[in-house]
Amino acid sequence: MRMELGNEQKLEHLEKVLHSRALQNSESLKAFLRFVVEKTVEDREALLKEYTIATEVFGRDSDYDPR
Known about the structure:
It is a single chain. The protein has helices at about 5-20, 25-40, 50-55. The chain has 3 helices and no strands.
């Protein structure tokens, strides 16, 4: 039996993971995880591209070339 989580539950679990001891010293990993989960919950997976992640999550310049 497969159980599907609602968006609110997914975001609650995200917050638990983000506040976990395992991620306490990794701001960049937390930012990446938050971005991926939030875009997925918003049905905006199309934004999960290397360029978008690099510029929006990791602060790369707009002239960033992923090649």
